[in-house]
Request: fold
Amino acid sequence: MYNKIKRKKRPIRFLLSRALWHSRLCYLFTIKFASGIKIRFFPTAGSSSFWIDPYSCIDEELFISSYLREGDTFIDVGANIGYITLTAAKKIGDSGKIISIEPHPRTFIFLNKNIKANAFMNIETYNLALGNEEGKISFSDSKSDEQNFITKSGIIDVSVKRLDELFNGPSVEFLKIDTEGYELFVLQGAKKTLTKTKTIFLEIFQSHFDRYNYKKKDLLRFLAEQEFKIFVFQSAKVLNEIDPNSEIDLEKFENIVATKDVSFLKSRLQGYSIN
Reply:
């Protein structure tokens, strides 16, 4: 345990965060970011991470903020406590639209409280999961919000819808998906939406995909079949295109960007190298 704590970037603040979390004194704190948004320190792993280091997701924040424009439509699948949703809401303004989806009931409450704390009026929230068919599904209930996922042995029943049934707007400028391994099924239930989606940002952890018996290449090939070009982050501001059928080592990449219009992506991401 000592060695685990010692390896943390800010070990003293990490210990303090755990004490605040478990004592529920965390509710007394608000975390403010340079962008102007703020989130409450709720008893969740996500809140704790931001209290320890408000810049822990700075690369994702900069990427999304650089890409989005006022009036855009942004869909956040797996919104958690809302950091990315709030980042997008500030960027797209009142003329834009955000659909924010979080399946876990407790985390969904925290998401809505963070939205209210920032007084954003351009966000629709949904307490449900997305997949390739409608119905009910079991969800885990770990105290750590970052470890909850769809599982047959779950203890919470949540509703499942297809994104195609939820969204009927003319276009989606940005679709972000973080569903702890369920990404392929979310995409399979969004084929109609994908035809009018400009850019997708999603996680690709093989350990998460293993829960549902598929590989990274299965997801990449599905995106290629929908006519998306796929890019990986070589560094914070360098995106390189990959061939989903190649023998490239995908294990070192945690996130991918997929787009149907590379020229549009380049026009949005000024200051990024896209090859």
Notes: The mean pLDDT is 91. The longest strand covers residues 197-203. The chain has one domain: 58-274. Residues 105-118 form the longest helix (14 residues).
